[in-house]
Design a protein that fits this description.
The structure holds two protein chains of two kinds. Chain A starts with a helix and ends in a 12-residue tail after the last helix. Chain A is of the alpha+beta class. Chain A has 22 helices and twelve strands. Chain B is mostly beta strands. The radius of gyration of chain B is 34 Å and the shape is globular. Classes of the chains: A alpha+beta, B mainly beta.
Chain lengths: ~575, ~1100
């Protein structure tokens, strides 16, 4: 009996022992998280990825600071870096002085973010094709129009990011294939090759996009027909400028052509759509959280249109063709859907009631130079062929919106001193100026609600005035001087009607230089100047030889053939295993 | 003839005994009776009593008595053995029908060579060990009052580096066995009574012994979990016999014994005045600095704090059942105010014999812990921690103010902490007062086991075990105002709950036999399967109805808008199963060999690498067996082991391409304040991912001398981690990786098995124990030398940063030690001898009135001008070394300036005993490493924002400073150690990272001194007390170090449970103001009934 039980138990033990787990036991799928293989099954899952692609527009610092400021602005003659002192953000100070190198990855990481945006747009496009096929007409009826629109939006975004890459880095590798980490990075394409992809994407997109006015509640901020046309006009204008000023450089530009007429066509499609308006062109005043008296407005009658665009109330106004939607969402520094442009560019210190500089504001980057101040008075000696006469700079109503000077005030709220106007303190700001285009009352808009400095103002990436000036430029280059003059005067009229000083007056004749000048003033401190100077081939003329207030005695030197485009980040070159090559001047 | 016949009969009987192994039934018999006692005359229960060369034997009973009947007449060799005692043999002559008495007094085996140590899935005699195993007894552990068993291991075993992350109550403990195995994870595997569990689930008083498996030949039986070593904890069991009650308690007070030297009010005021004078300010902020008060903020945030501990256990049983039940409670207040830790624990172990071949048992434990105070990471963050501000905050500022600005004596609301009129720094008292953070952890572990012994030599054991851990965090943040930027306008309540659940089922079959008398074989095979799940959720709500604790719940929130209030939650699951086996072989106990193998299957590994095989072997040879018996050289054994183990520092699901829904994927169409949720693939996944394979070789020697009073163990090891898990930087073109992946939707570079790391080192431990009459003494020394080198890394790993000082601090690169600090080398100060002078010897001045320092490297630029390496340097500035000699001083001149990993570790225990009294001393030290003291940035880089080091006040370079009338305000000081005060920071003396920040981190510490008195038994037994000992103990009594900060033990923010410990591993010894070290004086009592 005993022997039996021993054997019996041993047998059970051995059986248990041999019992092995099946492979299923080891299959542990992620919890609370889907995987790429199983997530996409309908339009709504695709739609979240479309939202994620838009989300990339709010990536920390990228579109405001690195793209607009570090790349588009600070390298130009109109902007000095600023900050607390010359040690504040040395990488950008180096761009200011044109002494940056290709290892300064910190400021060149727009490269990564632009490609991340493209990749997410691609994720949408490839998965949508996988699910619903190539032909937009064959999409299932219940989601047909939504999917068509969303697909068009993703092509718009993919085109936008490709364009920003070319603006910043020149010819880059096209990314319209599914990412395969096992493959090598492809070589750089020429700018023309990238533009062909952009053009195709935008032309594919335009028919399916909605006009801005058709975007319903909750849709504002999606790519519209107008945005796509404006972008296409811009791309065509860039191609034309490059062709005119750089010829067909095989290495960088490729077979670019002068296509001003096509650029004009797309810009005019935006103008004739009736969707947009130069806000305040007829002298209308707008109520705003800002004190109207402080900005050359009429007492008690609101502020002029130009000023009003750059207020929080001016978000998504009729002037906005393509705006990044920024909000305070209290999500924290790195995750906020707000923009840091406001924090970076608002004045650093303000005086309290006792005259002590104790009120903290922003960080005082993006300082306007004396060259820009002169330009407002048509007095920049380097500009020639202007049809406007010298005048006191501060008479242009756009001046006070673009440039702050000692004596200027900013309305804000502090716990200790309440809601009132505080005088700005220009201590440590060698230019004695500050840009006011995206300023917000620091306490009103961020300190009061969040400690993370996230700004709620949309980044106005393409304004209607920009489109009109593009049209003017394309017109004059295609020989239609009358149209060009009309367009420029539209912009000048609105400017004039935005203040009570009367300037600038209408032009009676027009030159290309007038358009260069008008773009400079109308779009001052908004991050366009450097890119414009480069495409016009004027960068050497306007940037070389300027001096900076921050570095007395230092002369900036723009090297032709090198500084037109920023270097591709060094690690990216290294990781490409030789496929990517730096332009010769950067090697 | 008759006699010869009986002799023949006996011979015949013995032969038949040997052949048939059956007992004789027809011979005449005698009886042996006796008692087994120890040297004190106390009975030894359960000793083995047996007749050599036969199967006859018994065990001693409760009174130490035994009786062996049926002994065939004649002369027999009777032996008695017991664990921890030397085996004794007596020759007894037995006559038929007579009972003989034989008493044994066993002598304690000082070196405990015959001691049995626990190894993975089994036990082994210490003398037969062939792997590198260290053993720590509970007796040693309990000599130092410590908050948990992992801390108690500090200095106890060679090769084991133990350090608290911080000195805060309940801090996590960082244990590294034999250096850094991996940059991902170095936490060893803890096995409590046979199953993996959290060391915090064990109360120190319940521990019987701790074994540390240091090399792969010992650890490979734990396969892919064992790369960082394995710590086996065995808890106490009841002993058959008398029931025993133990009560241990101590109460002590902790006091901070070392503060950082900082300037007092007047000293600060004078430097500040100098700072103003240098800027041309004439109207000084402090008209009369000498009258400034001084408020000692380091003392204001600290306190004298009590610590107390109580343990009660009851154990006992009979031959069939034993039990152990223990209760423990300890509470430690922190020396930093508003921090504390307490723990309650309960354990029940029992074992029951069902019959001769079946045994069942269980281990159960329950622990509750409560932490109050700062999160551990906050102590390592210069913006969040309370300690650094207590050093750097201007101490002329009173702690509290009244609304009218006058100093107040106490806090009256959440805005009356003083702000600093000179800077925007945080009031340290405010920071401590505002902390309302509490975390509770509940741990329950239960194991049931069944053992079957069906036939001789064969054992089967199965264990089913389950664990549960629940953590509950609460943090309340009131509305407060400390400075214009350090404020909170919304009250917040944050709550988090998480739980871990797991089960494990093991089967172990072992067989033990001896073949041909000389060949001993022990074979074991086993199988186990396990599953674990972690689940967590947390949320925060803002703007509570009011700030009383009754409102610290979500429903009290009045805010329905903020996105940050979204709750978060997720879960992870993993499962695995394994086969393992071991074969031990020895030839007459002289030549020893052991082979282990384990095959792991785990859900953590990618589908392409689902299983792993981890083999090991070790060999030993007792060469002393060939030596003649002599009193000097008693025991000698050489060992060699080789093994391969794994480090599965991989996050669950690492190989899946997941969809992320991070906030960065959201977008606020129409400027809506609640952005719409977006989702996108967020990972470049690598399906090939597998464990890190770590290969160790170990050569060791064990020597016993002078009747085994001296025992020496030495080991040399080499360990190599091939295929270390590292991020492989992916090109940005693929669109996954951006500047700050963790903050951009969890995107990270793909992880691959590509790095290689090597450790090598030497461990020596020696012990001596002897008596001279009533005087007993013992000394135990362990010494470790470890070197860790990065053999191959795809990229240089740059980690660590600190406020004010540019760039990353440490770099780990191929061919170099890990975690090395890189910065500039300084070579003293420039002086007036280094400047350009004209023909008359007068200094040449620039248009701005500064000197030109010419005695320094330079280059000639394209314009033919001389450009100096430090163009803005003045006399009194640091001379940074142009290490590469290119005439420039820039980042290319960074050189290694110090490694934070100690080269040598030392632990020394000295025990003395005389009559009633005992004294023990425990010294512990670490040597040959550097500490990066970032507090020096605040205390030396004077810009008026922070307090200053008194050393700097007295000893910085200065030209004469005159006031408007030409009177000397500050005299010149050319013979100075520290750079000049420079408001423009032209030469960046302190904002460049240099060897100025590195300090020698070596220290030797009298960790513990204990003096005890045991009352004579004769006295205590009257009161029914078996043993009564009272003692006084002092912890951290003396520290020898040159380090200038609070304490040379700088922990790191290392979560022992995390698979990503990279930053903590690569940035060690970074002092951002560590929790102040304290001295504990305590008195305790040990009571046994």
């Amino acid at each position: 009996m005993k022997k039996f039980s021993v054997k019996y138990i041993s047998l059970i033990a051995i059986l248990i022992f041999l019992l092995s787990c099946s492979e299923d036991f080891l299959e542990r799928k992620p919890i609370a998280q889907d995987t790429e293989e199983s997530y996409y099954d309908d339009f709504s899952s695709l739609n979240t990825t479309a939202t994620a692609a838009y989300g990339m527009l709010c990536s920390r610092d990228i579109y405001d600071i690195f793209y607009l400021f570090a790349h588009g602005g600070v390298g130009s003659d109109d902007v000095e870096c600023g900050g607390e002192n010359t040690g504040d953000w040395p990488e950008i100070q180096n761009v200011d002085r044109m002494i940056y190198g290709h290892a300064d990855e910190y400021i060149f990481n727009t490269y990564a973010y632009f490609y991340k945006g493209i990749r997410i747009a691609n994720d949408f496009i490839f998965k949508a094709i996988e699910l619903y096929g190539e032909d937009p007409n064959e999409y299932p009826a219940n989601i047909k129009s939504d999917l068509q629109q969303r697909m068009a939006e993703m092509k718009f975004l993919r085109a936008l990011w490709h364009f920003m890459l070319t603006q910043t880095y020149g010819g880059v590798s096209i990314a319209i294939e599914k990412a395969d980490p096992a493959a090598l990075v492809p070589a750089r394409n020429t700018i023309k090759e990238v533009y062909e992809v952009i053009e195709l994407d935008l032309k594919d997109a335009i028919p399916y996009l909605k006009e801005k006015s058709q975007l319903g509640s909750g849709e504002v901020g999606r790519a519209s027909k107008g945005a796509a046309r404006a972008l296409l006009a811009k791309v065509l204008l860039y191609e034309s400028s490059y062709a005119e000023n750089y010829g067909q450089d095989d290495n960088k530009f490729g077979a670019v052509e002068q296509r001003y007429d096509e650029a004009l066509q797309y810009a005019e499609e935006v103008i004739s759509s009736g969707e947009y308006e130069l806000v305040g062109i007829n002298g209308e005043r707008y109520d705003s959280w800002r004190d109207s008296t402080s900005y050359g407005g009429y007492n008690g009658n609101g502020v002029g249109g130009y000023r009003w665009i750059f207020t929080l109330d001016g978000d998504n106004s009729l002037e906005g063709v393509w705006e990044i939607q920024n909000v305070i969402d209290l999500a924290g520094w790195t995750e906020s859907r707000g923009s840091y442009w406001t924090t970076y560019t608002t004045i650093r210190y303000m005086f309290d009631t006792l005259g002590n500089s104790t009120i903290a504001g922003g960080w005082s980057f993006n300082l306007p130079t004396s060259y820009l101040i002169d330009a407002f008075g048509n007095n920049d000696s380097r500009e020639s062929g202007l049809n406007s006469t010298p005048v006191e700079s501060r008479l242009d109503p756009r001046f006070q919106t673009s440039i702050g000077e000692p004596g200027d005030t900013l309305k804000m709220y502090t716990i200790s001193q309440g809601d009132r106007w505080y005088e700005m303190d220009f201590v440590n700001l060698p230019t004695n100026t500050i840009s006011r285009k995206y300023e917000c009352s620091p306490y009103e808009f961020w300190r009061k609600k969040t400690n993370d400095n996230e700004g709620p103002m949309n980044l106005r990436q393409i304004r209607y005035a920009d489109v009109i000036l593009m049209a003017a430029e394309a017109a004059i280059k295609s020989g239609n001087t009358t149209a060009a003059l009309d367009y420029v005067n539209m912009v000048r009229t609105r400017a004039r009607n935005s203040g009570n000083t009367g300037y600038p007056q209408d032009l009676t004749t027009i030159s290309f230089e007038d358009i260069v000048h008008e773009r400079r003033l109308e779009l001052a401190m908004e991050g366009h100047r450097f890119f414009d100077l480069v495409r016009w081939g004027l960068a050497d003329d306007f940037i070389s030889g300027i001096s900076l207030d921050v570095y007395p005695g230092f002369t900036v030197q723009f090297e032709v053939g090198k500084h037109e485009f920023f270097p591709i980040p060094l690690t990216e070159i290294q990781l490409s295993g030789g496929a990517l090559q730096q332009y010769p001047a950067w090697q | 003839m008759k006699e010869s016949f009986s002799k023949q009969l006996k011979n015949l009987f013995l032969m038949s005994l040997m052949i048939f192994c059956t007992s004789a039934i027809f011979a005449q018999k005698g009886i042996i009776n006796g008692t087994v006692t120890d040297a004190n005359g106390d009975p030894i229960i359960g000793a083995n009593v047996y007749i050599e060369g036969t199967t006859q034997g018994t065990v001693s009973d409760i009174d130490g008595k035994f009786s062996l009947p049926d002994i065939t007449a004649g002369s027999v060799q009777l032996s008695v053995s017991f664990i921890g005692y030397l085996t004794e043999t007596q020759t007894i002559t037995v006559d038929d029908g007579v009972s003989v008495e034989a008493n044994f007094m066993l002598i304690e085996d000082l070196q405990q060579l015959s001691e049995v140590v626990v190894i993975g899935y089994g036990v082994q005699k210490k003398s037969d060990l062939t792997g590198a195993v260290a053993s720590v007894s509970s007796e040693d552990l309990n000599k130092v009052p410590s908050q948990d068993i992992s801390q108690a291991l500090q200095g106890r075993a060679a090769g084991v580096y133990v350090m608290g992350n911080t000195g805060a109550p309940g801090a996590n403990t960082d244990i590294q066995i034999r250096g850094t195995t991996s940059i991902n994870r170095t936490t060893p595997l803890w096995i409590i009574d046979g199953v993996p569990a959290d060391p915090k689930s064990v109360n120190q008083a319940d521990v019987e012994s701790i074994e540390i498996l240091k090399d792969a030949s010992a650890g490979a039986i734990y396969g892919s979990n064992a790369a960082n070593g394995v710590i086996l904890v065995t808890t106490k069991k009841g002993k058959a016999g008398k029931n025993q009650i133990d009560f241990n308690a101590y109460y002590g007070v902790q006091q901070v014994y070392n503060y950082v030297d900082i300037a007092d009010g007047p000293q600060f005021g004078r430097v500040f005045t100098e700072y103003e004078a240098l800027q041309g300010i004439e109207d000084f902020y402090f008209p009369n600095p000498d009258t400034l008060p001084t408020f000692d903020y380091q003392k204001k945030i600290t306190q004298t704090a009590p610590m107390q501990s109580y343990d009660l256990s009851v154990s006992g049983g009979n031959e069939n059942s034993t039990y152990f039940i223990g209760f423990g409670f300890m509470k430690q207040e922190g020396v930093v105010k508003r921090t504390s830790y307490d723990r309650m624990s309960f354990r029940a172990n029992s074992e029951h014999k069902g019959n001769k071949w079946l045994t069942v048992g269980e281990n159960f434990s329950f622990t509750r812990q409560k932490f109050v105070g700062f999160h551990e990471w906050q102590y390592f963050n210069e913006y969040e921690g309370p300690i650094l501000p207590s050093v750097t905050f201007h101490n002329f500022v009173p702690v509290y103010v009244n609304p009218d600005g006058s100093p107040a004596t106490e806090k009256n609301d959440t805005t009356n902490w003083s702000g600093d009129p000179l800077s925007n720094t945080v009031n340290p008292v405010g920071r401590v007062d505002l902390k309302n953070q509490e975390s509770q952890t509940y741990l329950a572990n239960a194991t049931a086991y069944l053992k079957i012994h069906p036939i001789k030599g064969l054992d089967y054991e199965t264990r089913l075990s389950g664990g549960f851990k629940y953590t509950d965090d609460v943090e309340f943040t009131p509305v407060y105002f400390l400075t214009p930027t350090i404020l909170n306008s919304d009250s917040r309540i944050y709550r988090a709950a998480s739980q871990n659940k797991n089960w494990l089922w093991q089967h172990i079959l072992s067989y033990n036999t001896t073949l041909f008398e000389d060949h001993n074989i022990l074979a074991m095979v086993g199988y186990e399967a396990g599953w674990g799940r972690y689940e967590t959720m947390n949320a925060e709500r803002m703007n509570l109805i009011n700030e009383t604790p009754e409102m610290w719940y979500f429903d009290a929130s009045t805010n329905t808008e903020a996105v940050s209030q979204f709750p978060n939650g997720y879960a992870n699951e993993s499962s695995s199963y394994s086969y393992f086996g071991r074969l031990n072989y020895d030839f007459r106990g002289i030549a020893l060999a052991q082979f282990n193998v384990r095959k792991d299957f785990s859900s953590k590994f990618g589908p392409k690498n689902r299983s792993g095989v981890f083999p090991s072997f070790s060999l030993g040879y007792k060469f002393s067996e060939h030596l003649p018996d002599n009193p000097i050289f008693n025991f000698g054994k050489v060992r060699y082991g080789w093994g391969k183990v794994g480090n599965n520092a991989i996050d669950d699901y690492a190989y899946y391409a997941t969809i992320g829904t991070a906030p960065v994927f959201m977008y606020a169409f129409d400027n809506g304040t609640s952005p719409i949720v977006g989702a996108a693939p967020d990972k470049l996944a690598n399906p090939q991912i597998g464990w890190e394979a770590v290969v160790t070789s170990n050569l060791g020697i064990d020597i016993g001398m002078f009747n085994n009073r001296l025992f020496l163990t030495a080991d040399y090891f080499v360990r190599r981690n091939d295929g270390m898990l590292m991020e492989k930087q992916a090109p940005w073109y693929y669109g996954y990786v951006v500047r700050d992946p963790a903050q951009e939707g969890g995107v990270a570079n793909p992880i691959m098995n590509i790095g290689e790391l090597k450790n090598s080192g030497i461990e020596v431990s020696a012990s001596w124990k002897d008596n001279i009459g009533k005087f007993g003494y013992g000394i135990n020394v362990n010494f470790t030398y470890v070197k860790t080198e990065a053999v191959d890394l795809p990229d240089t790993l740059k980690e660590g940063g600190t406020k004010g000082v540019g760039g990353t601090l440490t770099q780990t690169m191929t061919g170099q030690p890990i975690g090395e600090y890189y910065g500039y080398q300084t070579d003293g100060l420039f002086t007036m001898d280094d400047i350009e002078r004209d023909a008359n010897g007068d200094p040449v001045l620039t248009p701005r009135g500064t000197y030109i320092v010419v005695n320094q490297p330079y280059i000639i630029n394209e314009e033919g001008e001389t450009e100096y390496a430090q163009p803005r340097a003045q006399p009194g500035d640091f001379r940074f070394v142009d290490a590469n000699g290119d005439g420039m001083v820039n980042l290319d001149d960074y050189v290694p300036i110090g490694n934070p990993n100690p080269k040598y570790l030392l632990g020394v225990t000295i025990d003395l005993e005389y009559g009633w009294f005992d004294l023990s001393m425990f010294w512990q030290g670490a040597f040959g490493h550097k500490i990066c003291n970032t507090q020096k940035y605040y205390l030396y880089n004077f810009d008026g924002q922070y307090n200053v080091a008194p050393d700097y006040v007295d000893n910085h370079y200065r030209h004469e400073i005159l006031d408007g009338e030409g009177n000397v305000l500050f005299p010149a000081n050319y013979n100075a150690t520290y750079p000049r005060l420079d408001p423009s920071n032209a030469n960046e003396n302190f904002t460049r990272f240099s060897d100025f920040y590195m300090e020698n981190g070596s220290y030797l510490r009298l960790k513990n001194l204990q003096i005890g008195m045991t009352l004579p038994k004769e006295w205590t037994t009257v009161a029914g007390i078996e043993r009564l000992r009272i003692y006084f103990s002092a912890t951290n009594l003396i520290t020898f170090t040159k380090y200038s900060g609070f304490d040379p033990e700088i922990g790191s923010n290392k979560d022992p449970n995390s698979t990503d410990q990279r930053e903590a591993i690569l940035v060690r010894g970074l002092d951002k103001g560590v929790y102040p070290p304290s001295r504990l004086f305590s008195a305790g009592i040990n009571l046994t009934f």
